[in-house]
Amino acid sequence: MVLPAAFPNLLANGSQGIAVGMATAIPPHNAAELCDAALYLIQHPETSSEQLMTFVQGPDFPTGGIIVESRASMAETYRTGRGAFRTRARWTAEDLGRGTWQVVVTEIPYMVQKGRLIEKIAELLNDKKLPLVADIRDESAEDIRVVIEPRARNVDPALMMESLFRLTELESRISMNMNVLTGGLVPRVLGLNEALRAWLDHRRDVLLRRSRFRLGQIEKRLEILRGLLIVYLDLDRVIKIIREEDEPKTELMRVFELNEVQANAILDTRLRALRKLEEMQLKTELDELTKEKGQIEELLASEPVQWKLIQHDIRQVKKLFGPETAIGKRRTSFADMPDTTDIDLTQAMVEREPVTVVISKKGWIRALKGHVQDQSTLTFKGDDGLKTAFFTETTAKILVLATNGKVFTLEAAKLPGGRGFGDPIRLMIDLEEHAEIVEAFPYRPGLKLLMVTTDGRGFVAPADDVVANTR
Questions:
Q1: Would you say domain 350-466 falls under CATH 1.10.730.10?
Q2: Which sign does the torsion angle of CA 262, 263, 265, 269 carry?
């Protein structure tokens, strides 16, 4: 059995499936774009997957959203048939007046459950992992409307959303593994051009099968019509033979020189219908079927004619699902990945709290909650003692200067807590064996550091030049 599939189902609707030793993940696409690509591929069979992206921009999800994957990455995915598309929720910052605002999410990524998404964000809020977010609520009716309130009015909406994208399914990666049965029902991973070519070849196969089947039906009907035209001139004798002869089929074949098919057709026709036969009607049907037979034979004999008809069918599909129609318009848009620095994101996802950083003489470091005014209460391991202690906040970066002239950067939020004696600082930075810690202090933008060697030489280094996003 061969299904017609005039519509590019596999790519347009997508597919998900897991079998023994293999899996399929095909995201949905825009039907009109697929039609344009298929029409171009008919005219230019050697077109690559990347060239077809002129027409097929990328997946088109029914839930909308924004794809932030680079074009180069998508081109590689379509070329190999394997990859992923990073998709984000669509949101806007809604002005509430007097400097206040809230974020409204109107579209979420494909296959993300809204209820689970909101529960996850609520859990992160309870765990204080989203310090920029104050609350989230669902105001959805027919359309999606998820409201996210900021902790303070001076929070950057984009920065708040970046923290949410990193920790929640507001950003998702939609996988693509175009593993399909093709040709002799052999599983293969196809690129975009191969998948469209396979569909076009299937359309031609369906056209040829359908045309051959119709041609066979026409030939059978023409044979019967010729027999009816032969007996039409002497219907009374035909009826008499049917009524009186013991072997009417044999007699009809002998008297009118009919073949068995024609004789059976006459015998299968009711006598009342035989009496109502009209010569003009029979000849008209004969002429129409003869003309149609010629057209089908011409179609079967010419591949260009076949592709011309397939193009016509594809254009009809595009009319139904064109970009100007409600069902055919593209729902998913594209955007570049926002250029947000790691340092901003790190600060955004850390609760801003006061801490006291303590470093011992033997190089153990820890961070105590709050600002500890009485440092005499600090305890140390064995004969160890206090080297330095200073007040800062969990969002700060700590600069650590060593005797070998290197400056290391630590995040205050990642320092071990105040319980116990902390951890050796050498486990956190790549400090050479012979080197020791000279000093440590919180980084401040614009700060200048005076570096002096043991022989009296020195220089000034801006703290902005020595701070790093990594150790």
A1: no
A2: positive
